[in-house]
Structures are given as structure tokens and as C-alpha cells.
Amino acid sequence: MLEGKALEITLTAANSAAQAWYGYDQGVVSGMLISPDFIKVFPETEKADIQGITASCFSLGNLLGCLLAAIYGDRLGRKNTLRVGGVVSAIGAVLQFSAFSFPQLIVGRVINGVGNGMLSSTCGIFQAESCASTRRGKLSVIVVLHNVVFYCIATWLTLACSFASGGWQWRLPLALQIVPCFFMMTFLALVPESPRWLLMNDRTDEGLEVIRRYSGNGLSTSDPIVQDEYRSIKGAILIEKQSQISFISVLTGRDRSGHLKRLLLGCGGQFMQQFGGINALNYYFTIILTKNVGLDELLARILTGCNATSYMISSACAFWIIDRFGRRILMLTGLSLQSLAYVMVAISVGLLSTAPFEKQWGIVAISFLFFYYAAFGCTWGMVPWVYQSEVNSLAMRTVGAAAATSTNWLFGFVCTQFTPTGIENIGYRFYIIFAVFNLAFIFVVYFLYPETANRTLEDLNAYFDIDSGHSTIIPIGDKVAKSSKRPQEAIDAEASRVAMAAAADGKAQDVAVEHAEDVDNVA
């Protein structure tokens, strides 16, 4: 039976395989849409609006999958939700790579999306609920990073398959979507259910045993480390049950735990990720290089692969910086750099057809497209997925993560659907839209998004409590909301929760309170 780090690694592998599906689809579709055999089988995809439908219908399926996860996720549990999502995605993959008619292709992409929506809205929760707070950020980054890793793999794979004859050009890459499903199912068989989900469903003995296994080092369930973690989680659950209200009350903001605000923060992060412009590029990178920059198909494919590799390396950097610098600094830095990148892309694409140095402006455009991906990868590519799994309470975590992921897919659909038409009709001006969005989002993050790095999930419950004294709009001098270090008030609140849970168990509990500085890395 796996314990400690071995168990955490296996859990991370299972959730990484679940997250890989999304990135793989983006990489495959980007190359598939310009494949000669694909266009021969589906000639309607040469039209800009049909290209949009082919790519974006996957997002609509994901939206439905997120809604299903929100409705049934807490009943099924984290593991079973992932299993169902994997089976549905595999069915969609089979329909896609065997398609000879456009309707079958679209149905397959929608079904694939439904399964992926269940996977993407659940794997982050499963990871966050099972890992220690000191490692949660890094391990969550590894999970999200596999989105980018498989985007990179798919991009190079479609390049390799472009030299094949006939349907192998695009059917083989689509068929290989099933591989992550196999690995996910294998790893899921080796890990237990989320300890927080077990305790929330009054499966106390199982939850305590899972906490012990993740603690590692051969600890027993009676060890103080295991007991303190158990009591901290149980104390938070008791507080939530005492203040439990209806979902309608949550939506109207009539609750003491700030559920509506937390829900909107998670959804807002995904909204800003999409309107930061990533899916305006991911699905159509090769098309942008051929139509806007004027490259031939082979060179466009090669540069797409090089960009995907650079994107992957940049995303990997988040592993070392997400907990050190915190979520806020990464979000603010990313928005600034992304806005600059889109401004320069707009200028260079606009000058391509009129300037005397046409080739040089093409190089500038390509360089800043690479720059955008590098900036996005280590900031907004990672943070919204981690943030949405942290910010919601245990009672609302499934619904909150599903709502945030649904927001991603809904506005991903909008961006994906209208990008080909926008590029065709307004050219370089289309990129200015995303430059303005990125600039505006800087103020949203600075004044509305509190730091979540190095906090336990129960710390965040205490922060958003109505009696905490923290306002919705973050004051400039609020170090607790901005510091990447765990604040002293969170440590004190944890001591109170442990004592409360111990009292509920009928046991006295002496709690040693540590002291922490919370003034580093304030943004």
C-alpha cells in the first residue's frame, strides 16, 4: 500500500493524465485543420466559421461535462467522477478518429469534451484536497503542466504525421487521445479517495486512515501530526455545517463564509485567462502563421512545435516560483507581459503588408507570439487552475471548481469560435482587443484577488469568514491579503480549529502556536 511521497507522486500522475487531455486536443486540432487529407475528407472546414465550429464544439462539450460534475461530483466522489469522465472521453475519441462525415466528427468532439469537462473540473480538487499545503502549489503546477506537455507532444506529433499519406495524417493523432485515459485509470486504482471528501461524508475512519497514508513515515492514526491534520479539517467541516445555507442564499450573498465572492474569484480567474487571449492562439497558431505572417505550411508547423516546446519550458518554471512568489505576483506580472506582447503583435502584423521591411516585421510578429506564450506559461497558464481549487470552501469546492472550469470552457468557446472570423475581417486590430483586456485585468487582480499561497484550505475558510475583518476590495496596506507567507492570524485560527475539534471528540488538546512573519513577497 502506497504511503507518503510515493502516494503523492501516484496521485499527481493520475491527475496529470486527466489534465493532459485538454492540451493534447489543442495541439492536435491546430495541426489537423491544415492537414490536406483532413480538408479533403471535410472540405467544409476551409471556411473560417466552420473552422471555428470544429474547434469550439469541444469547449461546449466541456461546459456540459463541468455541469454534470457539479451535479453529481459530490455524490460520486473524486475518483469515480474521474473514471466516468475518462470513459466518456475515450468514446468521443473513437468517434473522432473513425469519422468519415462531418456530423460524426462534431458529435465525437462534443462527447470527448463532456468527458474532459468532468476530468478538468475534478482533478484539481482531488489534488488540492489530498496534498499538504506546503506542497500543494508545486504539485498542482505539475498537474496543470501536463496540459502544456501534451500540447507540445501533440504539436510535434501532427508535424511528424503530416509526412504520412492519407488519413494517417490526422487519424493517428486523434486515436492516441486514448493513451492518457489508460494511464489515468491505472494510477487511480492505486490511490485512495480524497480525505476531505471522506470526512465530509462522515466516513471518519477511512478519512483518518487516508490522512495517515499521506503523512507517511510509518505514522499511526494516533500520531499528533495525523490527529492535528484530522482535527483541523474536521473543525472546518463543523463550522461549515453550523452555518450551512441553501444554494440560493449563496447566490444572493446571504452567508457568513463568503461563498459567492469565492465562487466569483474562481470563475473570474478563468474568464481572465480566456480573454487574456490564449485560445485565440492555441487552436489557430499555424493558421495565424500562414494567413497573417505568410509562412508556408511546413515552416508554420515547425515553428508551432518550437513555440510549444518553449511554452512547455516556461510553464515548468512555475513549479519553482508559484509558492515562492505567490499567486498575485505571477498574475500581475503575466498580465503586464501579455498586454505588451499583443500590442507588438498587432503593430508588426499591421505593418507586414505596408512596410518596406516586410520580412523583418514578420520576424517581430513571430518573436512576440513566442514571448506571449513564455509569459503566459509560467503565470496565467498555471495560476487560475490552482486558484480555483484553493479558494472555495469544502462544501462548495465541487460546485465552485465546476463553475470556474465551465467559465473557462464557455469563454474559451467564444474566443475559439470568433477568432478565425476576427482575423479574416479586421486583421491586426483583432489583437488589440486582447491587449486592452490584459491591461484592464491588472486592476481587477490587484484589488480583488487575495493571496492563497502557503495557506491551508482551512486558512482560506477563516480569511473569507464574515467576522475576519477582510473586505472585498483589498486595501493597499493589507499585508495578510498580499503576502505569500502564511500569516500569523491563519496560524492562530488553526489552533482554535484543532481545539474545537478536540472538544467535539471529548478530548483536551494543548496546541503549540507557531509564529510567522508575513511581510515577504507582497504585491
Automatic annotation (TrEMBL):
InterPro entries xref list: MFS_dom, MFS_sugar_transport-like, MFS_Sugar_Transporters, MFS_trans_sf, Sugar/inositol_transpt, Sugar_transporter_CS
Q: What is its main location?
A: membrane
Q: Where is the protein situated, by its record's location annotation?
A: Membrane
Question: GO MF terms on file?
Answer: carbohydrate:proton symporter activity
- Give the bilayer topology: Multi-pass membrane protein
Domain of life per record? Eukaryota
Q: Which protein family is it in?
A: Belongs to the major facilitator superfamily. Sugar transporter (TC 2.A.1.1) family.
In Swiss-Prot or TrEMBL terms, this protein is called: Major facilitator superfamily (MFS) profile domain-containing protein
